[in-house]
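Tip: read the tokens left to right.
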């Protein structure tokens, strides 16, 4: 009885089970593609912050008035006026930071395996497929050839050489720059440090303005806040009191206006008072002052013409002249006991109250208001006019026996507006940028280079030498290095044949 045997090959069906939801979410959050996408979005948000004036910048109120109602509404809805503090900017920072951390955790085991446990032996076929690989035949027994190879490797900068024997083959292995494998993680640390500093500044920092004139003091600063179509001033209390002592404006042309185009520097001298005492401070353009985490720097000035000091020419009844210099809010004492107080200065003098909204930065009609106090007499008001009104009868009217003429004055604005910024994350950001710069230099200017040499001994007192290697970057430089090593070995072989 015959038996018919039939073999049926049933194709195997591989059923791919779905990955758990948490695994898929973690895979997405750690993907490089997501990180690049988030970085692009964060960059676009920063571009918006540069193109659209932020509400804590001096001059925002004027900028806001130039916008159309539609722009105000859209920008306000999208939080463009304060984009660095809005919820989606912080969400982008948090997501990008999470992506960097998870990507580092996901790829670290593989990097550690490559760096911590290098393989001194590799398949010969794999070695021949590497860029820059070469095969040469050297004369001499195996020990002589190995000594020569080790010497050439050390001459090429490969210091630590590992020798391994496997299947009657001798493997020479060396590497340099192993630390470079971890450079990407140092870059990640630098980025996260910068993000942390920015987050601390956004959440804990504050910015405000201090518009004060000399002699005034305050412990509060104001900040502009935009709520859709409403612009409000918010007042914040400082942990100290600021008293303005003196302001100075260095002009390019002394006879010119006190505009920014004619100014070299603005100097503000002030005193900070707190529970530790009084602290003198000076803020100049490009030279801010730091105190207790707060930074004071020049922001703007009021275009109202004032005088830091005046030179007044006094003429008595006998026609004798005397020039006196009086500082702002200061007093000059004469030999006869008369005191002259510098009460007020106007860049455009008129009879009646001063228009505080008028731009008098060009000083069209300067004049000083004085308070003259003769000995044992009541104070009297006097005026020292400039050349525009010097010939008028009111300018020649004597007060306490003197007539007064404004000879010279040092121009200065009515107020300097200081910007006060509390930036608790600034030092963290600086550390992050320094770390990022150092790590980027280390990552891109250096590399992890590995080289393998396989030596097979032949029966005719020669050895076949196969060499090659790999690097994680800068392949051209690495190939040149291997090429120089092969050339030296080839030259040695030619010299031996010539002998």
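Filled-in amino acids:
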């Amino acid at each position: 009885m015959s038996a018919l045997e039939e073999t049926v090959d049933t194709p195997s069906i591989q059923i791919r089970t779905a990955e758990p939801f948490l695994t898929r979410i973690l895979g997405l959050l750690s993907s490089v593609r997501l990180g690049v996408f988030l970085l692009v979005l964060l960059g676009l948000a920063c571009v918006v912050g540069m193109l659209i004036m932020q509400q804590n910048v001096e001059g925002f109120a004027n900028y806001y008035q130039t916008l159309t109602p539609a722009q105000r509404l859209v920008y306000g809805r999208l939080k463009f006026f304060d984009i660095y503090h809005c919820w989606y900017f912080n969400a982008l920072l948090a997501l990008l930071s999470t992506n960097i951390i998870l990507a580092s955790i996901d790829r670290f085991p593989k990097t550690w395996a490559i760096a911590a446990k290098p393989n001194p032996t590799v398949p010969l076929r794999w070695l021949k497929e590497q860029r820059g690989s070469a095969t040469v035949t050297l004369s001499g027994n195996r020990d002589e050839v190995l000594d020569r190879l080790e010497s050439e490797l050390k001459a090429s900068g490969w210091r630590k050489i590992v020798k391994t024997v496997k299947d009657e083959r001798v493997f020479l292995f060396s590497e340099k720059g192993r630390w470079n494998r971890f450079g990407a993680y140092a870059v990640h640390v630098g980025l996260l440090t910068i993000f942390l500093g920015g987050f601390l500044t956004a959440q804990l920092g504050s910015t405000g303005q201090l518009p004060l004139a000399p002699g005034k003091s305050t412990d509060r600063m104001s900040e502009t806040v935009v709520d859709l179509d409403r612009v409000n001033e918010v007042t914040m209390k400082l942990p100290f009191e600021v008293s303005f002592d003196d302001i100075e404006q260095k002009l390019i042309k002394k006879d010119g206006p006190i505009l920014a185009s004619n100014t070299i520097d603005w100097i503000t001298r002030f005193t900070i008072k707190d529970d530790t005492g009084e602290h003198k401070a000076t803020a100049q353009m490009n030279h801010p002052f730091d105190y207790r985490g707060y930074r004071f720097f020049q922001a703007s000035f009021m275009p109202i013409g004032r005088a830091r000091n005046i030179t007044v020419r006094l003429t008595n009844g006998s026609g004798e002249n005397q020039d006196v210099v009086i500082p702002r809010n200061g007093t000059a004492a004469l030999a006869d006991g008369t005191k002259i107080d510098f009460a007020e200065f106007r860049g455009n003098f008129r009879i009646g109250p001063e228009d505080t909204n008028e731009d008098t930065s060009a000083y069209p009609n300067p004049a000083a208001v004085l308070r003259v106090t003769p000995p044992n007499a009541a104070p009297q008001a006097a005026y020292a006019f400039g050349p525009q009104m010097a010939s008028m009868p009111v300018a020649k009217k004597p007060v306490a026996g003197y007539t007064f003429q404004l000879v010279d004055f040092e121009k200065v604005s009515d107020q300097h507006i200081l910007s006060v910024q509390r930036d608790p994350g600034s030092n963290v950001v600086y550390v992050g940028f320094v770390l990022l710069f150092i790590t980027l230099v280390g990552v891109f200017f250096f590399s992890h280079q590995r080289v393998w040499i396989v030596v097979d001994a032949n029966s005719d007192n020669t050895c076949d030498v196969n060499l090659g290697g790999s690097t994680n970057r800068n392949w051209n430089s690495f190939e040149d290095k291997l090429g120089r090593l092969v050339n030296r070995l080839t030259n040695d072989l030619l010299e031996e044949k010539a002998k």
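Residues 69 and 371 are 51 Å apart (CA to CA). The longest helix spans residues 87-116.
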